[in-house]
Amino acid sequence: MRLASAAIWFLIDCIFPFRQPLSEEEKRANEERRSAAQIEWNHRLANLTTDEETLSKYVDACKDALDDERERQRGVDSRLTTMIGLSSITATIALGTILTASVQKPQWTWVLMALLLYLTLQTCSTVLAAISGLDRRAYRGSLPFDVLPKQGEDRVAHLRRLMQLHHDILMQHQDQNNSKVTQMAVAYRAGRNFILGVIVFAGVAASYRLL
What we know:
By secondary structure, this protein is mainly alpha-helical.
C-alpha cells in the first residue's frame, strides 16, 4: 500500500506537483516528536539555575534563536518571490510560443503542443506553490508589556518567563516557516520538471527542423 502511494505521488510530482498531505502515521510521529521536545524543554527549564546573570545569557540565546528563525523566514520569502518572477518570464515565453507556433508538418503538431502544455503546467504549479508559500500567515510576536516584570514577579521568575515566551514564539514561527519550505520544495520540483521539459522540447524541436 505504501509503495503504491509513493508511486502515485511520484507520478503526480512529474505531472503537476503540489503539496502532499501528511499521512496519519506521519501526523502522529510529528505530534510525538513535538510532545517529547516540549517535555524535555519543561524539564530543563524547571531545573535551571537561579543565578540571574546565567539566566540572562540563556534569555539572550533564546532571542538569538528566534532572530535566526526570522532570518530564515526572510530567506524563504525571498526565494519564493524570485521564483514567481522567473515563472512569469517562462510563462510569457511558453504562451508566446503556443500562440505563434507554425508547424508545417501536422504529425508534429500534437507532440509540440503537448510539450508546451506540459511546460505551462509546470509554470502554473511553480507560481501556485510560491503564492501559497507567500500567503498571509499569523506570526506570533511579543507585546511591549511582555518584556516588563509582572507585579510581584522577582527577577528569576521574570527571566524564566521571557525564556518561555521566546520558546513559544520560536516554535510557532518554525511551524509557519516549515510550511513555507514545503511549498518552496513543491515549486523547486515543478521548476526541475520545467527544465527537463525544456530539454525534451528543444530536442523535439531540433528533430522537427532537421527531418
